Amino acid sequence: MEPITGITRGGAAYTPTFVTALNQATCIGCGRCYKVCPRSVFELIERSEDDEAYDEDEDNSMVMSLANEMDCIGCGSCGRVCSKQCHTHEAKASGA
Fold first, then answer.
1. Which of 15, 27, 46, 79 is the most buried (most CB within 10 A)?
2. Contacts of 48 (CB under 8 A, 6+ apart)
3. pTM score, two decimals?
């Protein structure tokens, strides 16, 4: 199947890449991707105590998770604002 494509206002073909995974081991819970996402794809949750990055002395032991992955529109904003490059993006076929 062919990947989903669109056309920019200038007439150029555009292939969006959709968020498919988020590496919680490298996520620092800054919330940048949450703030920039226009579709509420992300959710900030508490790290579990068995998580290697968990620090009980840390005031904010939060991590981002994918809450509504299927709502992603493929804009890629989350990947551009992430200082730790936690997001994985892929082109998707229509209907996938």
1. 27
2. 54
3. 0.80
- Residue of 96, 4, 19 whose CA lies nearest to 64: 19
Q: Could you give phi then psi for residue 31, rounded to 5 degrees?
A: 85, 5
Confidence check: pLDDT of 51 > 60: no
The three-point CA angle 92-87-13 to 5° equals: 40
pLDDT, tens digit, for every residue of 32-49?
999 999 999 999 998 876
Burial class (CB in 10 A: 0-12, 13-18, 19+), 33: buried
Q: Where do we find the tokens 């936690």?
A: 86
Alpha helices, H only, 1-96: 32-36, 77-81
Q: 3-state class of 51 per DSSP?
A: coil
**Closest residue by Cα to residue 29 from 58, 68, 72:** 58
